[in-house]
Amino acid sequence: MKVLIAYASEQGAIIDAIVDTCRRIKLGVDLYEVSHGETALESGLYERLSSSSSVLLVISQERFSEGWVVFSVGYMLGRGDRGLLYIPFMEREIPEYFKKLSIASSQKELEYYYREEKRIWNQRIAVERAKTKLAAKGISFTEPAFIKCVERGEKTAVRCFLAAGFSPNVRNEKGVPLLSLAVRNRKKELIPMLLSAGADLNIISPDNGNSPLMDAAAIGERDIVERFIESGANLNVQSKNGQTALILAVGKGSYDIAEKLIRSGADISIKDNLGMSAIQYARLFKRNDIIKVIEHCVN
After folding, report:
1. Sheet-wide strand order for 84-86
2. Which of the listed residues 148, 203, 247, 270 has the most CB atoms within 10 Å of its CB?
3. What is the DSSP letter of 95?
């Protein structure tokens, strides 16, 4: 992102500080000083305005009515820019049409404005790059396509969607969230990516009432279970049937997962809708190794 800083000659004393602020935010800077009495066309300002991605006008109140200022403000408004006017030491009312642009009267306000502009700019660039990369793969820039990419484990495409601002908590037509879809399809390489993007660890799938941790326990995915536990997942969520991740692990016969859940603090006393707890299922299915772990924790 490059900022054209157009300023009246008498404002030169504060320009160095403004440039330092812009460079601290990692903005490109194009300086243009306009002398008293110059018009936009005479000074060459028009060409600089037309090639800029963002414009900052640094002016004093005495310059409000000068041709280059009026022209620059009109140009920005016509182009649809939000634009920024930096007017230090404002003491009187500004022209009404100036108010359609953002106005800063301090370095702090200026820095805040451009940090936000840089964030918006970066997001816009990320979206365009993502669209280009996805188009090259024949993938549409839509939520359904995003969901399909998660189900298929297309890591590069999923990264593009997330970089472009798609929510990591998107759900499919049945309401199943992406994190659970990645688990159910055993696409474990997507788990860290979704979590880093802010996926809800404890989001519930309406089809079975499971959290992602419970889905991982149900299919015996130890690595995923461990990742969720380390990330702070709720170990005691109950499904529609009242089952927990521990009960599901016992039913699957996954000793290592059951042990990890127990040693991580899973509640062994919770009973499902049939009135059965984890140890009762362990006894029913003769999971003696799991019984020993549970009894050891109890004692």
Report:
1. 28-34, 2-8, 54-58, 84-86, 102-104
2. 247
3. P
Same domain? 21 vs 97: yes
Q: In the chain, which residues have pLDDT < 50?
A: none
> Same structural domain for residues 92 and 31?
yes
Residue-wise pLDDT for 163-188, tens only, equals 989 999 999 999 999 999 999 999 99
CATH assignment at residue 12: 3.40.50.360
Collapsing DSSP to helix, strand or coil, 119 comes out as helix
CA-closest candidate to residue 178, choices 160, 155, 203: 203
Domain boundary among 158, 176, 198: 198
Output phi, psi for 100, to 5 deg: -75, -10
- For residue range 150-167, list pLDDT tens digits in order: 999 999 999 999 998 999
Q: In the structure encoding, which two tokens stand for residue 256, read together?
A: 């290592």
Instruction: Look at residues 154, 156, 212 and name the one whose alpha carbon lies nearest to residue 180.
Output: 212
Looking at the domain assignment, is residue 126 inside a domain? no
Is 275 inside any structural domain?
A: yes
Q: Please check whether residue 128 lies inside any domain of the structure.
A: no
Structural domain boundaries enclosing 171: 137-198
What does the pLDDT read at residue 144? 96
- Number of structural domains (the chain) is 3
Residue 129 lies in a domain: no
Strand ranges (E), the chain: 2-8, 28-34, 54-58, 84-86, 102-104
| Prediction pTM value | 0.74
